[in-house]
Design goal:
Blueprint (H helix, E strand, L loop, with lengths): L3 E3 L2 E2 L4 E3 L4 E3 L12 E3 L19 E2 L5 E4 L4 E4 L8 E4 L11 E2 L4 E2 L5 E6 L6 E2 L4 E4 L11 E5 L2 E5 L6 E5 L6 E2 L4 E2 L4 E8 L9 E5 L9 E5 L8 E3 L2 E5 L10 E4 L7 E8 L5 E6 L6 E4 L5 E11 L9 E5 L2 E2 L1 H6 L16 E10 L2 E7 L3 E10 L2 E6 L4 E5 L4 E2 L6 E8 L3 E7 L1 E2 L4 E5 L4 E6 L19 E2 L6 E7 L2 E6 L5 E2 L6 E2 L11 E5 L18 E2 L12 E5 L2 E5 L1
Length: about 575
Amino acid sequence: MQTNKLDGTELVEGVRDDVNKVVVHTIENLPAGEHKITRGSGENGLYYVKVEYTGEAMIQLATPEISYDASTGVVTIADISDANGIYYTTDGTTPSADNGTKYETSFTVDDGTLVKAIAVGNGTTTMSSSIAEKQVIRTGITIAAPVISVYNGTVAIMCASKNASIEYSTDGTTYTAYGRAFTLMEDKTVYARASREGCTTSEIASKAVAAVPAGVKSKTIYMGFGSFDSPANIDGFHTLKGRAGDPAEGYSLILNVSGKTWSSSNAKVTMANNETRTAIKGSNGAQTILRLPEGIKATKLTLYSFINAASGTRTTGWREVNGEDLTSIVNEVPMGANSDKKDYLTNPDMRVFPLDNVSGEITFANTGEQVCFVIALDVIEPSQTVTISDAKFATCVANTDLDFAGTDVTAYTVSEVGETTVTLVKTDKVKAGQTVVVGAEAAGAYDIPTTTEVFTAATSLMASSETEVPVTTENSYYIVANGDNGVGFYPVQTGTSIPAGKGYIEVPANSAKGRFLSFGIGGGTSGISDVKAATAEKGEIYNLNGQRVAAPAKGLYIMNGKKVIFK
């Protein structure tokens, strides 16, 4: 039910007109003058106003004319004949015979002051005028230094001096015109200055901005309206369910207010990595519940959004995320990507919210005007699949922190690259982004569990890249392969590229490394120091973890320092 108010007083009783499908409120003996009808935040609809007047018509007085001297701030209000006085305010409130100061002579105000004035009628033959407004903009003054506000790497800059133009810089040298809040992805210092024609430019303000760290993640799930099946009412709430085959499969988006509905904005939003999704349009002010699949943990929520309204409307922002009250942040760092802005889709509002391994569900809600949004969610999956080929060895780039202890796969860091041997050191835990060699006694796909335990990564000389790595120098890059000499590190041919996500080691181009580098396994494993150089006693057999085996099954083993296959 809507909350309707007349001049701030709630209209609690009304008669329903079922024919015209409206509720009628009748107010009698309403005094002459201006009246204001309002509704609750986020509510919409139409008002039909009918005024019945009995008695002689009154003449409305002319609106007062306000002028000022820009160099001094002296304000003058022209006289209105037949008025019972002119009243003015300088605090933003509405003037009347009961509020404000009666104008007698000119007065002086500060820069930016909003002066309002009204000519008061006698209530019999004349009614009060409309409200006149004039904002005083001074010349010859020094503009106030901008105020820089920051939340989770998002920066908003404001200036107390009205109509001032703000510029900002992240290097203290090159300045850009400031339009609306922006989000930094790395730590920087933001500088800002403000200017206005006829005035002295402000001092430079500065503030160190800490971006939200990248954090640990398995992957990022991008969710727009097209990521979900058609909306449906489930348990009385409008719900979007992740579409089968989409990365959002298993996720649900619930509008946590009965009777409110989801819809498409029909507008594609571009995110920081140039991913695009059609924005989701919900209901203003309603809380959203993002339900996660079982076993998934969320580490960061990024919301890309725009305001489905013209600029200059209500202050808008995310008032709550996962139970945290952000009402004060809405005012300090408001959104500004309104739908009447030229770049609101290619440069949407971006807000980043770190999450502490949240499972189950995440909530968020906005305030102000209607917000259309796209979701980017960083998650940790329960495990990462590692594929081992028939060669029994491979490389693995950890998407998140992994724990190999207790699995059938052994992980090795590269501790040293010798002339003929690469030294591998066994490790149980691998940090996100780290590249390691992995081995198993049988080919197959293995699920390695993720871990949230805090640990220090073992040093490794292996690397990988999110993009292809071109090879231009002979014998400079080596990858794990099963070649003529068995499994080991082989040089990548010049003129080719190492695929994205493939592990490799890089050696100096002028080094005397061989064409083949064998594995030397150490770091707590006994019996094996160099696969190519026999160090085990004659006849003794070891598995790839360096454990002595009395009765080997089928698979790859080390015997007399050489790789052998038992069939």
